[in-house]
Write a structure and sequence with these properties.
With 176 residues, this protein is mainly alpha-helical. Helices cover 81% and strands 0% of the residues. It folds into 2 domains: 67 residues; 97 residues, no CATH class.
Length: 176
């Protein structure tokens, strides 16, 4: 049963890494997948060498191997590059939304954020038009949205210096 949970933990960890790999070309994606497969094989081999490892030891091993891998280093690099950009987009969007009185103005803010994200070299993952169909933009919704954004901005500003100093993904986890 314990091996089952460790396998699930390993799979979830690898899924997290895979989701963070944002390669633009198929060749890069293939290379990342090969690196991921190699990393997974290395982790499985280490766990087979010591089948009596505790759950905590397995978790530490997985994190250590991720930290030392190209995947871990590349993910850390992307986070360090993208987090300040995300903060910039969030602040810009918040300023725009504060002025938005109508649903049309709300959509304009979203478009501006998409443009800024593109200018900053980021892929913008904004909601589809379908999701906005029944959305009501009123003072109550605006206030709640701005409060959530303010909280997100404060949290990001708080952890950003720590993330920038981080040497590994394990260090980033400590920033939260």
């Amino acid at each position: 049963m314990q091996k089952f949970f460790s396998t699930i933990y390993l799979a979830l960890t690898l899924l997290f890494i895979t989701n963070n790999i944002m390669a633009d070309e198929a060749m890069q994606r293939t290379q990342h997948m090969q690196e991921l497969q190699k990393l997974m094989q290395q982790m499985q081999a280490k766990m087979k060498e010591n089948p009596n490892m505790s759950k905590a030891e397995r978790k530490a091993l997985v994190q250590q191997m991720i930290d030392k891998s190209d995947i871990g280093r590349n993910t850390l690099k992307r986070q360090k590059e993208q987090m300040p950009k995300m903060l910039q987009i969030l602040k810009s969007n918040r300023a725009c939304l504060e002025k938005a009185q109508t649903k049309t103005q709300l959509k304009t803010c979203e478009e501006k954020s998409k443009i800024l994200a593109k200018e900053l070299g980021m892929k913008a993952n904004f909601d589809d038009e379908k999701e906005h169909k029944d959305f009501v933009w009123n003072e109550k919704e605006k206030k709640m949205t701005l409060e959530r954004m303010d909280k997100g901005i404060r949290e990001l500003e708080k952890v950003l210096p720590c993330i920038q100093k981080a040497q590994t993904l394990s260090d980033v986890k400590k920033c939260r």
